[in-house]
Queue: 2 jobs
Job 1
Amino acid sequence: MPWFVKIEQGIVEKPVFDQFVPAHRAYVRELISKGHRAKTGYWARRGGGMLLFEAGSMDEAKAIVAEDPLVKNGCVIYEIYHWCVVEE
């Protein structure tokens, strides 16, 4: 299955953002349980992060990202990329 990445930047104050982090993490665990091999994290300098996951197509990847609580609650702006793995 192809890999996709959501590169995001936070656009709300940290206290607002932080209230949706538990739901985001639960969503990532749900993706993992469904076989999407998802990983999430933030940049050490703060202010942004990344979600890496497998999906069947770009359309599926967009649908997955649209359901992320950080996206649904307007906490981030983002771009989605199809990541072409060269070596594993």
Note: Residues 21-33 form the longest helix (13 residues).
Job 2
Amino acid sequence: MVRKTNVVEQQNVRGGEGTVEFHHILKEEELYGHGKLYAKVVLKPHSSIGMHQHVGNTEPYFVLKGTGVFVDNDGSRTEVHPGDVCVIEPGQSHSMENNTDEDFEMMALIYNEAAK
């Protein structure tokens, strides 16, 4: 099967600012209980995803385009560029900011922590 991505635009994601587009690659049920989200995420200029915690899952980001600021669990701020990977461990919090006049694009995968 071949299909187009499902694009959903959201405002103020997780208490952040502005507009974020989610280009859903797989539906949650297509992750077969292993995860919650697999999508290209586009932060429009001067937009952000607010600080939020991952409990029982993790969400690595892979930067595709633009310059962003990754805010890590400890509050540290790191400028990120294409090819960078942002790692969020289960239980940690994070946010992402686009403070530029261009779109910022990344791949995001929310997958479940392994059962112990």
Note: The chain has a mean pLDDT of 95.
